């Protein structure tokens, strides 16, 4: 008995030692690709000066309008995409718990009843010479355990952890995108409100001009052509007003959807009251790895694919399984709890795959291809992030100069309208010049309004592209 105990202990020690050594040899640890980050990812000369990133600032410090903050807060609580992302996290968390439980043995316990009778026409039946009926009762506990010799279970756990973290990053990405969408839609509504006022004012001016034109025609200064053109400008402005009001309603519906609500009017302030940061700090390109949720998710996908190659590789090696069962078994229920009804068995098996129609090799080759795809997607996501930062930075930095030039253009057109109208009143100019100056003046005023929105949207895009909004 003592000799058997020594053999069992020695075997267990050998198996555990082999498991540790083999696990280290087969399973590899993930390392971030060294060439993934390019410090020239941003197209700007500001890079060496920025050691911090504006993405680390809370969105409440970027978007200071209290009404906008209220909309964002409600959207984060009720947005359906955010809630779906949270459920994806719960699902991934459950899979991670399952992968951790893979180290534990399986245990089943239950009573069984078996009724059996033999055929009289078989060899065994001929020996007995009669049909026998057997009732068997048992209470059996079965135990099974797989040794993680090659790190397969560890790799599965790591892959599920990467999947969970990827879903967390996806949730963060949804939040960041939602905040950006709410802010952009809100600023666009303010811009349309501003343009609506401009057009309403323009309608009044053009209606007055139309009346002036009719009076000048009666005085013989202008022709019917000028009257018709003046009237057309009134209709043009009125149609623009209808278009603006339609856009406002549709944007309000969009924001209602983002907030997880039925369509309704959106409370808001004014375009003139908005205050945004004068400067954004970019930080270094490597900061995107820690701040941009989509970049983080792409790397977690790479980690997941990497660990799945470890799982696929471990399939080439033998599997050590230990199974056992014990319980009570009898043909008479009256003797079920007798000591003589006790039974037990244990089986340890080492199974090496030899022929399985190439499935293991195929799985391994597919896992290698998937890992390369995940790396390329990681690289593409990072390059896209750099492009978005560069694009938003360019728009944000040039808008002030653009608005200043457009303001000068507007003032010139307004002066042109006044001068042209005065010359027409004295019969010294064609009314077509007044019409052209009036149209150009309206377009310039609308362009300034759009430019202000473009700067605010660029600020939103720059903050989001740096990875801000989810913290």
Describe this structure in words.
- It is a single chain.
- With 471 residues, this protein is of the alpha+beta class.
- It has one domain: Outer membrane efflux proteins (OEP).
- It is built from 11 helices and 4 strands.
- Strands 1-2-3-4 form a 4-stranded antiparallel β-sheet, with no helix packed on it.
- Helix 4 (80-101) runs antiparallel to helix 6.
- The longest helix is centred in the middle third of the chain and has 67 residues, at 152-218.
CATH class reads: Mainly Alpha
- Count of DSSP strands: 4
Average pLDDT works out at 85
DSSP helix fraction: 55-70%
CATH topology-level name: Outer membrane efflux proteins (OEP)
Low-confidence stretches: 6-11, 17-24
Break the fold down into its secondary structure elements and pairings.
Elements (H helix, E strand, L loop, with lengths): L1 H25 L32 H4 L3 H13 L1 H22 L4 E12 L5 H6 L4 E15 L4 H67 L5 H35 L28 H5 L1 H22 L4 E12 L11 E10 L7 H67 L5 H35 L6
Antiparallel strand pairs: 1-2, 2-3, 3-4
Helix pairs in contact: 3-6, 4-6, 6-7, 6-9, 6-11, 7-11, 9-10, 10-11
């Amino acid at each position: 008995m003592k000799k058997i105990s020594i053999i069992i202990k020695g075997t267990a020690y050998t198996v555990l030692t082999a498991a540790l050594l083999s696990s280290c040899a087969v399973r590899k640890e993930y390392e971030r690709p060294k060439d993934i980050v390019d410090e020239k990812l941003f197209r700007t000369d500001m890079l060496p000066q920025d050691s911090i990133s504006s993405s680390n600032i809370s969105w409440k410090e970027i978007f200071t309008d209290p009404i906008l903050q209220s909309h964002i807060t409600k959207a984060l609580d009720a947005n359906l995409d955010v809630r779906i992302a949270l459920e994806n996290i719960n699902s991934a968390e459950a899979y991670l718990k399952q992968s951790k439980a893979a180290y534990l043995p399986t245990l089943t316990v239950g009573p069984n009843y078996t009724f059996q009778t033999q055929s009289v026409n078989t060899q065994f039946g001929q020996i007995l010479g009669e049909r026998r009926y057997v009732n068997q009762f048992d209470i059996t506990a079965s135990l099974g355990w797989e040794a993680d010799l090659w790190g397969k279970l560890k790799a599965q756990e790591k892959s599920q952890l990467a999947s969970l973290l990827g879903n967390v990053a996806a949730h963060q990405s949804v939040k960041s995108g939602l905040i950006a969408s709410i802010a952009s839609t809100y600023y666009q509504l303010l811009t349309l409100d501003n343009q609506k006022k401009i057009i309403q004012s323009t309608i009044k001016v053009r209606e007055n001009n139309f009346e002036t034109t009719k009076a000048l025609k009666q005085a013989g200064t202008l022709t019917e052509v000028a009257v018709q053109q003046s009237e057309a400008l009134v209709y043009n402005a009125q149609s623009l007003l209808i278009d603006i009001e339609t856009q406002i309603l549709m944007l309000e519906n969009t924001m209602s959807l983002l907030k997880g609500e039925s369509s309704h009017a959106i409370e808001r302030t004014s375009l003139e009251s908005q205050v945004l940061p004068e400067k954004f700090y970019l930080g270094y390109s490597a900061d995107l790895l820690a701040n941009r949720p989509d970049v983080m998710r792409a790397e977690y996908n790479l980690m997941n694919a990497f660990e799945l190659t470890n799982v696929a590789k471990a399939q080439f090696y033998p599997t050590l399984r230990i199974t056992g069962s014990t319980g009570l078994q009898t043909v008479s229920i009256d003797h079920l709890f007798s000591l003589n009804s006790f039974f037990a068995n244990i089986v340890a098996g080492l199974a090496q795959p030899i022929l399985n129609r190439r499935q293991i090799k195929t799985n391994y080759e597919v896992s290698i291809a998937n890992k390369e795809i995940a790396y390329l997607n990681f690289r593409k996501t990072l390059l896209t992030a750099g492009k978005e930062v560069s694009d938003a930075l360019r728009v944000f930095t040039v808008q002030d100069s653009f608005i200043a030039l457009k303001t000068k253009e507007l003032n010139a057109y307004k002066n042109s309208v006044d001068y042209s109208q005065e010359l027409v009143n004295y019969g010294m100019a064609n009314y077509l010049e007044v019409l052209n100056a009036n149209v150009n003046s309206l377009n310039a005023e609308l362009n300034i309004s759009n430019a202000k929105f473009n700067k605010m949207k660029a600020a939103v895009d720059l903050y989001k592209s740096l990875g801000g909004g989810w913290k």
